[in-house]
Amino acid sequence: FILSAITVVWTKALSARTRALGVAGTDDRRDWYELDPSNADDELALSLLQNVIVAQVPKDRLGAPDSNGVYRALDTWPDSKRLSASENLCPGQRFLRQPVFAHCSATLVGPSQVITAGHCYDNLACADTAYVFKYYVTGHDAGGEPTFAEITTDDVYFCSSVTTNYNKTAGNYDGTDIAYVQLDRPVLGRTPADYHKKLELTTRGQELLGIGFGIGLPAKVDANVKVTDPCPKPLTDFDPFDGSEGDLTEQFSYQQLLDDLNSGVRNSDCEEEPVFFDVAADAFHGNSGGGIFDSQGILVGALVRAFSSSKSDDYEMTDAGCYVVKPAPEGLKSASIVYVHRVLDLVPLSPPSSPPSSPPSSPPS
C-alpha cells in the first residue's frame, strides 16, 4: 500500500510541530466528570476510561509513590507546566489550569500489553516510560482547581519491551506507525479492549469515539469523531514540499487540502487494502496512539497522524499577546487512524475474554 501524499504531509507536519494539532469544527472534548452515567454513550466512555485508556508518561514526571503507594505528582504540579503557561493561552480558554503531564496516549489490549503510536518512542526510551491509568479530572475544588482520582501503584505500569515498524529516519511513510508494548507485569482489575483482528472497513460519515491525552492534558473524550475517508487514495501529483525544507505555511494551506479532498481524489472502492482511515477529530499532540472505538466499544484503530501546517492553523494570536484556539474548517480530515488489525503484523495477540465492565458510579479512590 502506498501512503497518500497527504498522509506524508501530516507526518512531516506532526514531526515539525511543537504545539497542538487542532480542533475540527466544534470543540467536543469532555472531561471524566462531565460524562453522564445514565447516557449509554457516556457509560461506554466511562467504562473505557476505567478499563483500557492509559496515559504514556515519562517516569521522571511521575516520580515515586509515597509510603502508602500513592503517586502525588499531580498534587504539586507547577503552574509553569499547566496548559495556560505551557501554550500561552488567553484567559477564558478551556482547561487552563490542567496539567501537561502525559506524553502520548495508549490502549490496553491484553493482560499486560498496550498499543500506542510508534513515533511516541522517538525521544523516549522504553526504560523511561510509565503507563498510567486514571489520569482524568474528577471535578474542581472550592478554588476552581482541577481534582483527580487517586493514582496508586496498581494504576501504574512500566514498559518492559516495545515492538514497532516505525522508521524515524524515513518519516515512516512506508510503515503503520503502531507500537506494541509489553508491560512489566499483568494489569490488575481491568478488562482489555476487544479489537478487530482483521480488516473491518469503516464507512464515510461513521461516528466513532476517541479518547486520549491531547497536549498531555488529563483524558479527553471526543464522541464526535467522524470518518471522512475509510480508504484514502494516493495523491501522486500532490507534492507541497517539493523536496525543500522551510516554513510549512509557505508550502501549502488548508484551502489547498480542502480543494484536493473535494475534487474526488478518494479511494472509495478500496482497490488496495488500506493501512489508515481518515477522520475529523479534535486531535492534538499527545493524542498520538489514542484509541478510536465504534459504538460497541470495539477498538477500530489508533490515532497516529494529524495535519497542521503551522501554529496559526491551531491558534490565533490576539492583541493581548496570547493565543486562542482556532478551529479547523468543517469537513477537513484532521487525523489519520491506523486500522488496529495492523498490530498483528508485529505481535499476534489473544482476544480478551469479555468486553469492558460497567463504569464505577463515583470516582475511584
TrEMBL record:
This is Serine protease. SUPFAM superfamilies: Trypsin-like serine proteases. GO terms for biological process: proteolysis. It holds the Pfam family Trypsin_2. PROSITE patterns: TRYPSIN_HIS. It comes from the Eukaryota. One of its GO terms (molecular function) is serine-type endopeptidase activity.
